[in-house]
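Quick start: read one record
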Amino acid sequence: MENSFNLPIIYQAGGIVYVNKRIAIRRTKKGEWVFPKGHIEANEDPEVTAIREIAEETGLEAKIELYLGINEILLANKILKVHMYLMANKSYLPSWPFHLGKDVFLVDARDVSRILTFQNQLKFWQFNFDTISKFIDNH
């Protein structure tokens, strides 16, 4: 799919996962702080991708609570359109201990804004902050 920039559009899905009222944030190998996300496989629904990517990248089995929208990311050679969901942790997978404190950190929602590396995720977080906070506070 093309656009006015003549760049390919890549569809992804991911989530803002809360665990005991804290937010799971990934630290990539490059040291970037991000919400977990990944590519939608052929014939895969975005919801399935989000659940799979969260499990793979964090060691958390999460369930979707709320669709937050598409976070559009313009890169030098492509555009990412990321379906983002608010997700709740259901259980800890066997890989959880290998992620916690290494490449996944549980952060107080008030601190997420100062940790995220990329402006597009920061703006998406700030836009959805009230909705996310109210939802987490009520669950």
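The mean pLDDT is 95.
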